[in-house]
Amino acid sequence: MVNAKIGFDNETYLAEQTEEIRRRAGQNGNKLYLEFGGKLMHDMHAERVLPGYDPNVKLRLLQKLKDQAEILLCIYAGDIERKKMRADFGISYDVDALKLIDGLRSWGLLVSAVVITRFSGQHAAKQFRARLEHRGIKVYYHYVTQGYPADVDTIVSEEGYGANEFVETRRPIVVVTGPGPGSGKLATCLSQLYHERRLGRVAGYAKFETFPVWNLELEHPVNVAYEAATADLKDCNLVDPYHLQAYSKIAINYNRDVDAFPLLRAIWEKMTKEPCPYKSPTDMGVNRVGFGIVDDAIVCEASKQEVIRRYFRHLCEYASGQTEQSTVDRAHEIMLKLGLAPEDRAVVKPARQAGQDAMTQGKGRNGVFCGAAIQLKDGRIVVGKNSEQMHAAASMVLNAIKVLAEIPDQIHLIAPQVVQSIVRMKHDILKGKFTSLNLDEALIGLAISCATNPAAQIAMERLIDLRNCEMHMTHMVTPGDEAGLRRVGIRFTSDPFFASSELFIDA
After folding, report:
1. Which of 39, 114, 434, 492 has the fewest beta carbons closer than 10 A?
2. 220 closest CA partner among 293, 156, 314, 284
3. What distance in Å separates the CA atoms of residue 10 and residue 145, rounded to the nearest whole number?
4. Is 375 helix (H, G, I), strand (E, B) or coil?
């Protein structure tokens, strides 16, 4: 079973990480601000590079600590203003913040407040605050820190951290998280520590880390995959020089944490009038993920595949004007570092061949010949092609569940007259330009067909078996295909070509 191989043990990781967090809290006057690096919920990157990793294992950890922990959620005002997107869900950061609050509450966790960071009067941020406050959620503004990063005296003063609104917290562990990088989590932690000290309270700081993994090699594929994931931020892993100097031991960290450490240490010592308790940025981290790896070979292969996925994503983002050429170049360099090529992704060549076959067979639509390929969990590859009636992604998914349900190819899951009826409605009544069925529409058609077609019912029940399967398309996915793929849970990539000459595609 291709996707059933396990390389990571969640229970070992949970036990190790929970114990370390409790130990850190006990060292700091029983008040710890714990910055969560990476995704708190739905950590799909970790799931992809560490097969077996539960993408919500951090929530399980917090559930163990729920009577001791509360959560502050940070979001950068600039990300709200420009509608920054979370790529793995296709939603903006502000929407993801709402989704995150709902998710945390569903796990029985206390979200104390939302902190809008680096606020400088952005109208969209004001609207977001009002939206939350109308639903009973406390919202605070933190501002651009005066003097940052060079003037420590100003940073640690009433004009610096002192200008921020203080968030009163009640529990010993305060988890500080956000929808993505650059949310202002560290600054929020330090601002809170400043106010706590001003009020005569003792509190500490630590960082919940996942990647890079400090006790894996610098060039280990897991760590290289982190570089690929953050190619747009130009993050790079390196040996922590402070850790090496203090302990004569090699530990892996990344440039932003290493670069920030001298400043953080200076701020800490200015605030507390005491030596910083951490000798290195690695010391600050609580990261036991390396101890959960049980099969290094499986993890290495999964990480290599993630590097290729990220390369395709950056290519498509560049084609769409969402990133720079330098990001693509960086992603390509990272891929070459591991000796990989795009075609090392098993579904790439079959998808491209399916596109060629569509041209040969006279399929396609409006001169565009799109192919799609998916690798099932038993290793078999199934393809689909676009046509006048259906997108390649829709054709591929229907073909895949036919194969899984052992339904002969000549049997229609959605009756041709039903497909034609939908096409006519889109063209004649809704006046749509794009009339062929995207995946989202095909799934609805499949569900309707179940009422009269037993084969459709049997096939639909196999959709669950496509979750976490790998897929590639020769053209960038349209919104309707993307929505369907995300719902089914398929991991998709695509070549950086548009499926239409139209500039606006809404289907």
Report:
1. 434
2. 293
3. 39
4. strand
Mean pLDDT, range 246-257, rounded to an integer: 96
Where in the sequence is the domain holding 179, given as residue range(s)?
57-204
| pLDDT at residue 506 in the model | 57
Please report which confidence band the pLDDT of residue 257 belongs to, taking 50, 70 and 90 as the band edges. Answer: very high
Q: Of 143, 173, 204, which residue constitutes the final position of a domain?
A: 204
- 62 and 193 in a single domain? The answer is yes
Give 388 or 470, the one with higher predicted confidence.
470
- Whether the CB-CB separation of 115 and 140 falls below 8 Å is answered with yes
Q: Is 384 a domain residue?
A: yes
The reported pLDDT for the residue numbered 241 is 98
Are 322 and 377 in the same domain?
Answer: no
Q: Where are the alpha helices (DSSP H) in 109-174?
A: 123-133, 152-155
- What three-state secondary structure class fits 455? helix
Final residue of a structural domain among 311, 337, 363: 337
CA distance 383 to 353: 9
pTM as predicted = 0.90
The verdict on 317 and 382 lying in the same domain is no
Q: How many structural domains is the chain composed of?
A: 3
Whether 97 contacts 75, CB under 8 Å:
yes
pLDDT reported for residue 502: 55
Instruction: Assess whether 128 and 170 both reside in one domain.
Output: yes
Would you state the pLDDT for residue 423? Answer: 84
Residue 207 CB burial class (10 angstroms; 0-12, 13-18, ≥19): buried
Query: Strand 237-239 to strand 252-254: parallel, antiparallel, or no bridges (unpaired)?
Result: antiparallel
Distance CA 7, CA 14 (A): 15
Chain-wide mean pLDDT for the chain? 93
